Amino acid sequence: MLTPYRLHYAPDNASLVIRLALDEMGVAYETVLVDRRQNEQDSDAYRSLNPNGLIPVLETPQGPIFETAAILLWLTERHGQLAPAADDPERAGFLKWLFFASNTLHADLRILFYAEKYIDAFQADTLRAGIRPRLQQHLRLLDALAQRGPEWFRAGVPSVLTYYVACMMRWMALYPVSADRSWYQQADTPHLLKMLLHLETRPATRSAIAAEGLGVTPFTSPTYANPPEGSAI
Questions:
Q1: How many CB atoms lie within 10 A of CB 25?
Q2: What is the pTM assigned to this prediction?
Q3: Among 21, 70, 151, 228, which is most buried by a count of CB atoms within 10 Å?
Q4: Share of the chain above pLDDT 70, in %
Q5: Please, which pLDDT band fits residue 227 given cuts at 50, 70 and 90?
Q6: What is the C-alpha separation between 72 and 164, in angstroms, rounded?
Q7: 36-58 as b/e, with b when 16 or more CB fall inside 10 Å?
Q8: Which run of H or of E encompasses 205?
Q9: 31 has which bridge partners?
Q10: Distance of alpha carbon 169 from the chain centroid
Q11: Contact 219, 196 (CB under 8 A)
Q12: Is residue 143 part of a domain?
């Protein structure tokens, strides 16, 4: 039977967030590898789905969707899971923090990972040094949110936002491969750490570990992906 969704992914890319959400929702989907070793994200075929050439894309009965937060929001609305409903008083709070994760935290992470795309290469390390304090502040804000414990952002209750933040914290611990990462210490955000520990016990996480070779503790003590195909970041 054909599934309604096709997830275009590369191991340990932002598509991981979508994979986790789909598995947590129990929604059937197919995967299509975007092999970054072959620059398939720049192919005409892929750019017909996402003209920006970024991963992920989710093909749906309503057409392809790109941008991680847009896909997550669409899935929560369509399936009524992993987020407050539209008429829930908690909806506004959830939305502002989802877009904070996407537009602020994730955007700053891309600067950290790909500084050379934003500035001359000889200034890249200076830019990275400047962005790290911002990332630390973002994490402090999220840790305070987790301490307050709204239903959609606390240990023990997965949501698209908890998975999104968990993946970004994984990447902070691993990338850029050749850069200093001592600035990132999970002990600085104990409430987020509790969230990561819980998410590692979820069946969705175990499925992602098997699919993308993420290691047994992909959030709290991550190792580089060892994917069966394709290439990681």
A1: 19
A2: 0.95
A3: 21
A4: 97
A5: confident
A6: 9
A7: beeebbeeeebeebbeeebbbbb
A8: helix 203-212
A9: 7
A10: 9
A11: yes
A12: yes
Contact yes or no for 31/9 (Cβ under 8 A): yes
Does any domain span residue 173? yes
Domain, as residue range, for 175: 91-202
- Residue 196, burial from CB neighbour count under 10 angstroms (0-12, 13-18, 19+): buried
Supply the CATH number for residue 96's domain.
1.20.1050
pLDDT digits (tens, 9 = 90+) for 52-77: 999 999 999 999 999 999 999 999 99
Instruction: State how far the Cα of 55 lies from the Cα of 36, in Å rounded to an integer.
Output: 10
Tokens of 60: 């749906």
Helix-, strand-, coil-residue percentages of the chain, each rounded to 5 = 55, 10, 40
pLDDT of residue 179: 78
Q: How many CB atoms lie within 10 A of CB 200?
A: 17
pLDDT at 37: 86
What local confidence, expressed as pLDDT, does residue 135 receive? 98
Answer whether residue 39 is part of any domain.
no
User: Which tops the pLDDT comparison, 176 or 198?
Assistant: 198
What length does the chain have?
A: 233
Please state the domain count of the chain.
1
